[in-house]
């Protein structure tokens, strides 16, 4: 998900799809370009993508990050993004691609389910609200864009079961924006605080061990009903992790998380 400044809206490649507008698209196994889009990708993964994929693969978030992800620090940010590591074959295929199509289809990442759209987030100065913005941007080889079937953005989001992904990715994008300024100081982006923050953002199983296996619950107030949920619910725990990052790095309290005794 791109962070957009107002001037970016006219500069970005692709056709912006506004409310009420539609785009033509259909993808199906019989199409000539089938699976061509699942190779040699810079596919960024967001925290909820990690959760769904590690659940799908029935491995821990630690194993998932180790096997499938490269962390990259992009210009203008002081926090790493995650790139899905492509397979080491001539075509650099997605590691989840099978001859029948996507092998993790029900849990495919946000970017894959939003495709051929790309979602950006812009902050509307007048209201201070964040607003998602969508661009139709299939690659030239994608034949699906010549199909007649028309979609509005909400229709596409519903069809691709992308609503939860978009909602949680926006939560992440809003937090990630705070890393435009360097929070690490002298210890730098490889220091202990950065490692803890990386864990809370991307490594939900490790973060659960931290919450329940350290002095965390002696130091922070978490509502009892939420405490029960986060024992099993990875998405809720991820959101608590986002709140913890804000408190840990910037002292920002939330309804979910407050320091004890203060
Ligand atoms: S390139 Fe486009 S039409 Fe072809 S398989 Fe990918 S999404 Fe579908
Ligand atoms: S996760 Fe699935 S849809 Fe996404 S690139 Fe890989 S095979 Fe294609």
Compile the SSE list and pairings.
Elements: E1 2-4, H1 8-11, E2 15-17, E3 22-24, E4 44-45, H2 47-57, H3 61-68, E5 69-72, E6 81-84, E7 97-98, E8 101-102, H4 110-114, E9 117-123, E10 130-136, E11 150-152, H5 153-159, H6 163-176, H7 192-202, H8 204-213, H9 216-219, E12 220-221, H10 224-230, H11 234-250, E13 258-259
Helix pairs in contact: 2-3, 7-11, 8-11
One iron/sulfur cluster binds at residues 38, 41, 43, 94, 96-97, 102, 104, 108-109, 112.
Task: Give an overview of the whole structure.
Helix content is 37%, strand content 17%. It has 262 residues and is an alpha+beta fold. It has two domains: 2-178, no CATH class; 185-259, no CATH class. The strands form five sheets. Strands 1-9-10-2 form a four-stranded mixed sheet, with helices on one face. Helix 2 (47-57) crosses helix 3 (61-68) and helix 8 (204-213) packs across helix 11. The chain is globular. Residues 38, 41, 43, 94, 96-97, 102, 104, 108-109, 112 line the site of one iron/sulfur cluster.
């Amino acid at each position: 998900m791109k962070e957009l400044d107002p001037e970016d809206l006219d500069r970005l490649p692709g056709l912006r799809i506004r409310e009420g507008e539609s785009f033509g698209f259909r993808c199906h196994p019989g199409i000539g370009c089938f699976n061509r889009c699942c190779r040699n990708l810079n596919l960024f993964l967001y925290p909820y993508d990690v959760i769904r994929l590690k659940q799908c693969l029935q491995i821990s978030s630690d194993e998932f990050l180790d096997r499938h992800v490269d962390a990259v620090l992009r210009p203008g940010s002081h926090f790493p993004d995650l790139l899905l590591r492509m397979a080491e074959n001539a075509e650099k295929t997605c590691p989840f691609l099978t001859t029948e199509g996507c092998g993790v289809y029900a849990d495919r990442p946000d970017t894959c389910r939003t495709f051929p759209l790309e979602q950006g987030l812009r902050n509307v100065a007048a209201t201070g609200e964040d607003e998602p913005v969508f661009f139709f941007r299939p690659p030239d080889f994608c034949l699906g864009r010549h199909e007649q079937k028309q979609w509005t953005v909400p229709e596409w989001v519903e069809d691709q079961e992308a609503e939860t992904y978009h909602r949680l990715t926006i939560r992440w994008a809003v937090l990630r924006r705070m890393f435009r300024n360097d929070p690490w100081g002298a210890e730098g982006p490889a220091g202990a605080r950065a490692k803890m923050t990386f864990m809370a953002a991307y490594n939900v199983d490790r973060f659960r061990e931290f919450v329940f296996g350290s002095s965390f619950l002696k130091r922070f107030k978490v509502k009892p009903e939420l405490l029960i949920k986060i024992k099993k619910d990875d998405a809720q725990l991820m959101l608590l992790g986002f709140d913890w990052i804000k408190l840990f790095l910037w002292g920002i309290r939330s309804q979910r998380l407050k320091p004890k005794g203060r």
